[in-house]
Design brief:
The protein is mainly alpha-helical and 269 residues long. The protein is 73% helix and 0% strand. It is built from 13 helices and no strands.
Length: 269
């Protein structure tokens, strides 16, 4: 009995073979997609991102930097993202100019598109890390970029490499967001000012009290505030009293100093 031999159909390789696009047609297709779809949409998104980074988020960073000289890791990351966005605008302006030019070499068009797609992925990863990481709604933009890359880059190798790079960028953005969240929890906040106390014994001891009012330390907020409420004559009496312990009786009694201090304190209250 003769075994049945399987003969490979001759038409199967022709069906499964990927057609190799003509370089000129390939470049024309890429330029049409970039000019008619990608560039207008990207321009609109840049306006929205600019408003978010420099109008919504900038006041938060400015107020925090004014209140505390030390910036948190998340604020440093946001400042870097703002700087990268400026580079992103310039880079896309140059790339758009090259793609719009009629005499731009067709063989360089795929390389420019791949480079632009990689920079888009890096910037989108930064926005994802800023807006929540793995929980950000920008997750749905990554599949959109993959579809755009599939339409713009029909060649398999650069398309696969670029899409895998986008996946790596998304994972890095999620991990970076988690790391920034951990540093916000672990890192201590700005140092709290400890207000000095003013007791009854401090007021009864006039010489010590006068020293605190005339020469308040930077950490003694109460003495600094009270010294600013006293009248010039009281400051004059206190300075002379500190210079000579017996001089106070020549200018006013202790009761007069206490009365003026009490009046100024009640007026401020």
């Amino acid at each position: 009995m003769n075994p049945i031999r399987w003969h490979k159909p001759k038409w199967l390789p022709r069906v499964l073979a990927m057609p190799v696009p003509d370089p000129s047609q390939h470049a024309t297709r890429i330029l049409a997609i970039q000019r008619n779809i990608v560039l207008p949409v990207k321009l609109l998104l840049m306006v929205v991102v600019f408003y978010y980074l420099f109008d919504v988020r900038l006041p938060d960073v400015t107020s925090s930097s004014l209140s505390d000289s030390v910036m948190s890791p998340r604020e440093v990351a946001l400042e870097f993202l703002q700087s990268f966005f400026v580079f992103y605008i310039i880079f896309n302006a140059v790339a758009a100019t090259l793609l719009v030019l009629r005499r731009f070499p067709h063989r360089l068009v795929p390389r420019v598109v791949v480079t632009v797609g990689l920079v888009d992925g890096l910037f989108l990863a930064g926005l994802t890390a800023e807006t929540g990481g793995f929980g950000s709604n920008l997750f749905w933009v990554f599949p959109g970029l993959i579809v755009v890359n599939a339409l713009s880059i029909p060649l398999a190798t650069p398309q696969i490499v670029l899409n895998l790079s986008l996946c790596v960028c998304y994972l890095a953005a999620g991990i970076l967001n988690i790391s920034l969240g951990e540093t916000d929890i672990v890192s201590p906040g700005p140092p709290q000012r400890i207000l000095s106390k003013l007791t009854k014994n401090d007021i009864l001891n006039l010489r010590s009290f006068a020293t605190r009012l005339e020469q308040p330390s930077k950490d003694d907020e109460i003495s600094r505030y009270l010294a600013g409420q006293l009248s010039p004559i009281t400051h004059y009496l206190l300075s002379n009293y500190l210079a000579d312990h017996n001089t106070l009786t020549n200018f006013a009694s202790q009761a007069d100093v206490y009365a003026d201090f009490g009046q100024q304190a009640l007026a401020a209250d």
